[in-house]
Amino acid sequence: MTKIMIFGTFDMIHPGHEDLFYQARALAPDPYLIVSLARDSAVIRHKGKAPRNTEEARKVLLEAHADIDKVVVGDERGYIDHIQKEQPDIIALGYDQQGEYVEHLERDLKDAGLSVRVVRLEPFQEHAFKTSKLQS
Fold first, then answer.
1. Residue 3 in contact with residue 88, Cβ under 8 Å?
2. CA-CA distance, 91 to 118, in Å (whole number)?
3. Could you report the per-residue pLDDT of 24-76, keeping only the tens digit for each?
4. Rounded Cα–Cα distance for residues 6 and 13 (Å)
5. Dihedral sign, CA of 19, 100, 40, 136?
6. 99: phi > 0 → left, psi -120 to 50 → alpha, else beta; which?
7. Are 4 and 29 in contact (CB under 8 A)?
8. CA nearest 122: which of 11, 3, 12, 22?
9. Distances (CA, A) of 129 to 3, 14, 124, 125
10. Own/partner long-range contacts of 106-113 (Cβ < 8 Å, ≥24 apart)
11. What is the pTM of this model?
């Protein structure tokens, strides 16, 4: 079993997310997909506004998805603690994920003593399927 971890808000699940799940699972012949769900407070800090749905509602939606093996809620501050707990083999980042945690991720993983492969996934019709565009 290869543990693959992805991160996101997942205020809704659209075809772009479906493709994200597919690409992440395709990284290994024996995938175990872990979704790290952003806390409401982290979404507000990062995006400047609250998600449309609470973290509890978003977690229930993700837990019901057939392609997801486990859903964990991210840390209130930082991100390394819950990554250490899950011990993923691969972290798959979405094509549009950015910010301080992405810029320092590989360094922070190494500093924490974690040997994790970090990959960037490809976009899927990003002009049509992006949550911020679908919710406006």
1. yes
2. 5
3. 999 999 999 999 999 998 888 888 899 999 999 999 999 999 999 999 999 88
4. 14
5. negative
6. left
7. no
8. 22
9. 26, 7, 7, 6
10. 108/79, 108/80, 109/80, 109/83, 112/80, 112/83, 112/84
11. 0.88
Distance from C-alpha of 49 to C-alpha of 81, rounded to nearest angstrom: 24
User: In whole angstroms, how far apart are CA 132 and each of 11, 58, 97?
Assistant: 9, 16, 13
Residue 136 pLDDT class (50, 70, 90 cuts): very low
Strand, coil or helix: what is 79? coil
How far, CA to CA in Å, does 11 sit from each of 8, 36, 40, 50, 65?
Answer: 9, 13, 10, 10, 14
Q: In which element (H, E) is residue 37 found?
A: strand 31-37
| Residue in this structure with the two tokens 């952003």, named with its chain if needed | 38
Task: Report residue 67 as tokens.
Answer: 């392609």
One-character DSSP codes across 38-63: PPHHHHHHHHSS--SS-HHHHHHHHH
Hey, what are 48's tokens? 């400047």
Please state, as a whole number, how many other Cβ atoms lie within 10 Å of the Cβ of residue 57: 12
Amino acid at 87: Q
